[in-house]
Design brief:
Shape of chain A: globular
Order of helices and strands of chain B: HHHHEEEHHHHEHHH
Oligomer: heterodimer
Number of helices of chain A: 14
Strand content of chain A: under 5%
Order of helices and strands of chain A: HHHHHHEEEHHHHEHHHH
Radius of gyration of chain B: 19 Å
Distance between the termini of chain B: 45 Å
Distance between the termini of chain A: 19 Å
Strand order of the largest sheet of chain A: 1-4
Helix content of chain B: over 70%
Number of strands of chain B: 4
């Protein structure tokens, strides 16, 4: 069964060979054909893909339950808004700075609790999410603007060209997605990626083979938080106003669900599932108020009938093959 | 001193509600190792059913207040308990053999569904419990105000918790529940109908949650479809604080959380009180990963 799936997914197969260029072509043409509205929808889809991919490192690759991922996204977005308003630094630099800030926060916040198992870690990450959100509302040191949030004054500039139109953001976001996808797929096959998967499949055996599981888990959290933080900069630039409402626990839950529904550890799964979450409701606009009702129902039905997710990770099979080879 | 005692009374009142909701989390976790994220929403639905019964039925029934309140609570309890059993049958039972993560996601799905169903049925705005339904009597003891409503909440919770504890510890069915919590297969070998036990858990947990929902509606008067998350999260924190899967732990955790929250709100800052709550949880878990009264059950992942 597993081997069959690997065959179907094999990039040497003609279908897959065709599919990738076709998708890239369609993606390149889309913003020139579609209305600004739909391009905007795709921008938010892309931002969600970035978030989903970053959470996927933590949940999918290492199997750590993190239901507070929006906290890191928020840290990135607020870092951008605060620093850009005070010092007028270029958003490109701030994207890196926000990523690093969020990564640092990810490290500091999770280092004391990384040893917690499953459900307890999940609870604590929910707690972290709420703590950060409430802190933002309470406007510590007059930094965050309280419930009203902050206005982001600056825009991304590309050799003097201001990234402002939906189309510009579309290319910005999806280029970032492409970069992250590439980097993560390299990482997946590296020593680190394999160490992560061992930790997920059997932490005790992983420890026994000499993997420092604590380090592996923390690295995943730090990296995931960092990417989410950098995505926060893009979000802040796009929205122009950020407020604590965008980073609620509910958003974290939805994101968590996207990773699971896509198929744990599967990057195409994340893209598909966040697309289903962002684009489908827009298609079904007349049913907008039933959107979350359907989403909840879909989560239950998916788990019952297709627990492996929309596009299951093929590494289930890599694992199987590795097992056979040894 | 008076201020301290007042905050203590307020804390015990809220804590009693947390404890009642936490019991549902802890029992489901103890028996099924599942975080039932939908549990807070049972509580919320209990609140709404109570509201509807009071506004649509009891207003014209002209019964004595105590009878009205009992009937309302019983109706809310019955309907939510039935819903709990239905949810277990539809969304959790098919997943009992699969990985625990699928059940968690399914529970999240149920929660999102129930929340949005409530929003569509009762509207997105706050609904208010009718003022006539809440008893208004209060006593002043040594300068400390204790309202009848607060006494009622604490009294009802205490009675229910003691009853539940005795039921689980002293009766045959309770022994069956405890056996199922330890090992489903062995329990089945001993002739215990595990399905019925789980059904029972899903009658009791949501039922207690519904009672808490009605009590809270009467106390604060304002209800909203998101209170399930807000209180569910606190109750779940309480369950973990006490050691999840442990019934006395849920009671202790709930009361402690309520007291800490109200003392924090009173002495430090009301706006930051929820931050303290989670900070306490994180600190506790750093040093005692199984909660205050926790055993090793939760370590199985």
């Amino acid at each position: 069964m597993g081997v069959l799936k690997l065959k179907r997914m094999n990039p040497d197969q003609p279908a897959v060979k065709w599919l990738a260029p076709a998708i890239i072509l369609a993606a390149a043409v889309l913003p020139f054909r579609a209305s600004d509205y739909w391009v905007d929808v795709c921008v938010f889809w892309g931002i969600n893909v970035l978030l989903g991919l970053s959470l996927n490192i933590i949940v999918g690759e290492v199997g750590l339950f993190n239901m507070g991922h929006m906290a890191f996204f928020a840290i990135g977005a607020y870092t951008t808004a605060i620093l850009s308003a005070r010092y007028g630094i270029s958003l490109w630099i701030l994207m890196v700075a926000s990523g690093l800030t969020a990564a640092g926060a990810g490290y500091i916040l999770t280092a004391p609790i990384i040893h917690l198992r499953g459900d307890y870690l999940l609870m604590v990450t929910i707690g972290l999410n709420e703590m950060i959100r409430i802190s933002l509302i309470n406007n510590p040191f007059e930094l965050t603007g309280g419930p009203n949030g902050l206005i982001v004054l600056d825009q991304f500039r590309f050799f003097g060209y201001v990234i402002q139109k939906p189309r510009d953001f579309y290319f910005l976001v999806w280029s970032l997605v492409a970069i992250v996808l590439f980097a993560l797929s390299r990482l997946q096959h590296s020593r680190i990626g394999r160490a992560w998967n061992y930790v997920r499949e059997d932490p005790i055996a992983a420890e026994a083979t000499g993997i420092d599981t604590r380090w592996a888990k923390l690295l995943a959290f730090t990296l995931g938080a960092g990417i989410a933080g950098a995505a926060g900069t893009v979000f802040a630039a796009k929205m122009m106003v950020i407020s604590p409402d965008s980073f609620t626990f509910m958003e974290s839950v939805t994101l968590f669900a996207i990773v699971i529904l896509g198929g744990m550890g599967s990057m195409p799964g994340v893209i598909l599932a966040s697309g289903a979450m962002i684009v489908l409701p827009e298609l079904l606009r007349n049913f907008a108020q039933y959107r979350m009702l359907f989403f909840g129902l879909a989560m239950v039905l998916m788990m019952i009938f297709r627990p492996q997710g929309l596009w299951p990770s093929k590494r289930w099979t890599t694992k199987l093959k590795a097992g056979e080879g040894e | 001193m008076v201020f301290f005692l007042e905050q203590l009374v307020n804390g015990l009142t809220v804590g009693a509600v947390y404890a009642l909701v936490a019991l549902g989390y802890t029992m489901v976790y103890g028996v099924m190792r599942l975080i039932n994220f939908a549990h807070g929403d049972f509580f919320m639905l209990g609140s709404y059913v109570g509201f509807t019964v009071l506004v649509k039925v009891m207003e014209n029934a002209a019964l004595p207040l105590w009878l009205t309140l009992i009937l309302t609570t019983v109706i809310a309890l019955a309907s939510v308990a039935l819903l709990g059993v239905f949810v277990e049958r539809a969304a959790y039972r098919p997943l009992r053999k699969s990985s625990r993560l699928t059940a968690v996601v399914s529970a999240l799905g149920v929660s999102i569904f129930l929340q949005n169903a409530a929003m569509l049925i009762w509207g997105a705005r706050y609904q208010a419990y009718p003022p006539w339904a809440s008893p208004t009597a209060k006593w002043i003891i040594g300068g400390v105000t204790l309202s009848l409503m607060q006494a009622l909440i604490m009294g009802v919770s205490l009675v229910l918790m003691v009853a539940l504890y005795l039921f689980v510890q002293k009766t045959t069915v309770g022994a069956a529940i405890r056996a199922t919590a330890i090992d489903h297969d062995t329990a089945r070998l001993m002739g215990i109908d595990v399905d019925s036990i789980i059904r029972l858990i899903f009658l009791i947990g949501p039922g207690l949650g519904a009672i808490a929902g009605v009590l809270l509606g009467l106390y604060y008067r304002q209800i909203h479809f998101t209170v399930g998350w807000a209180y569910g999260l606190k109750a779940f924190t309480a369950a973990i604080l006490g050691g999840i899967g442990n019934i006395p732990g849920a009671m202790v955790g709930g009361l402690l959380l309520g007291i800490l929250e109200m003392l924090g709100a009173g002495y430090i800052s009301a706006a930051w009180k929820d931050v303290f709550v989670f900070l306490i949880l994180i600190l506790l878990l750093m040093f005692r990963p199984t909660g205050l009264l926790g055993e090793r059950v939760a370590e199985k992942v």
